[in-house]
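cron nightly-structures :: item 1 of 1
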Amino acid sequence: MIEGIKHIIFDLGGVILNIDYKLTEKAFIDAGIANFPELYSQLRQSDLFDNFEVGEMTSKEFICELQKASSTDITDEIILKAWNAMLLDFPLRRLQILQQLRLYYDLFLLSNTNEVHEEAFNEILMHSLIV
């Protein structure tokens, strides 16, 4: 235990949960949104994604706007799958480290996320704990 440290704050994506932004980019391009890199990247995003991330837009509105941006008939399911493609796994060792740290520190998760990703990473986490 480190003296003077009582609390540890973690981010989720890229710290506890492995993510790969390029997988989402590829999935959207494959689905017919050729300009996806202009709309979203790890470094910047359009108002559409900003509004969704801060809760100013529902999942349904987000999906509808992405359908408008597509040059094809893209289904809700394809959009959700593409958006979640970046979410990979919770490495078991990281979860074990969190279990050890919680014995000595108050642990907090502070992460910018959206409801679509939240549902998906909760499912990934539950699957990680079952295996």
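cron nightly-structures :: done
The chain has two domains: 1-18+89-131, 20-86.
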